[in-house]
Structures are given as C-alpha cells and as structure tokens.
Specification:
Length: 189
C-alpha cells in the first residue's frame, strides 16, 4: 500500500507537489531567452591575478563565460581564411596546402588502422583544419596536432580509443613513412 508521499512511480515527493520524476524540459527558445541569446561570449580582459568571478573561468588574464555554438557562428569568417597564421609566419600557400593534405591523409590512415567510423575521421580532419586557421604550421607540429585531432574526434563521435593505441598507430605510420622514404633514395656510389 502506498503512502501519501509516494507516487505511482515509487519516487517520494512532498504532499501537494508535482509527482513527476522527470525534470522539466525547456524549449530552445526558453533557453535563448533566459541566457539573453548570446551567440559566442567573447573573453573579458581582467586585471592580472584577479580572482575568477562566478560569471566564468579565469584562464591567464581573461575570463571566459560560455560558448554557444549555432550554425551562424560555426563557420570560419572569410577574413580569417585569406592570410592564415602560417602565411603570416612566412609559409607559402602551396606548402601550407600540401601540409593540410598530408595531415588529413595521416588522420585517415590512422583512423582506418584504429577502425574508427568514417564520421570520426572526418571530424578529426575538420578539427585539424580549424586548428591551423588559428595557429601556424611553423610553430606547431602537424603530426602531433593530427594525433590530438584523432584522439579528440574519437571521443566526440563516441568511438573512443585509448591514447596509447592512438600513439602506437601514429608511431607505426611514421615508421612506414620512414621506410618508404629510404626505398626511394638513390643508392650511394
């Protein structure tokens, strides 16, 4: 026999309160209205060594509050596409394109060896491209970035692989590339 405080589902509640065990579901419009419809919160500069407020997280000298992704802000702005950070560091466009292709091929090969779904490999390639639209090939190793992108993409697409497996696959691919480079060298003498 049920008491007054128990509902049909077995969850206890106070008399006279809602007995639904499920939390209330808010619509996207309610969420946008309650958050002030912020699209992408820009970092706010604070004084050095200032304590983090309840509004966000202090990283370095900037407070980051929230990130909201929508189709409007998911595309890279056109002004960031033309002079990439690598071009600003002196890398020519042709070499940058070759490094982007090589990085994507490396991600694809690693994904095949790790038996990742194709969507995870594509996500890794997108992460790779987006990273190098904000950072330079001159300052960051494309092999290490490709490895990180595969690891992150496998987690995002819910096909996680151990970091040890990812490192071993990239080491194996590096050894294969080294052997194929030795085969194409002219013989001495």
């Amino acid at each position: 026999m049920r008491t007054h405080a128990q509902s049909k589902t077995g969850f206890r509640s106070k008399p006279g309160s809602d007995t639904s065990p499920l939390p209330s579901v808010r619509s996207r419009q309610d969420i946008l209205t309650s958050t002030g419809a912020k699209m992408a919160a820009a970092p706010q500069t604070t004084a050095p060594n200032a304590p983090a407020s309840s509004e966000g997280i202090l990283i370095g000298d900037k407070v980051y509050s929230e990130v909201f992704l929508a189709i409007d802000n998911s595309l890279i702005p056109e002004e960031r596409l033309s002079p990439t950070p690598s071009m600003l560091d002196g890398l020519d466009s042709h070499t940058e394109t070759d490094l982007r292709i090589l990085g994507c091929e490396l991600i694809q090969s690693a994904g095949i060896l790790l038996r990742l779904p194709q969507v995870a490999m594509a996500t890794g390639q997108v992460l790779f491209h987006r990273f190098f639209y904000s950072k330079s090939f001159v300052k960051h190793s494309f092999e290490i970035v490709a490895m990180a992108c595969v690891n992150l993409a496998s987690k995002i697409e819910e096909a996680p692989r151990r970091i040890r497996d990812v490192i071993n696959v990239f080491h194996h691919l590096k050894q294969l590339r080294g052997k194929s480079d030795q085969l194409h060298l002219p013989k001495p003498g």
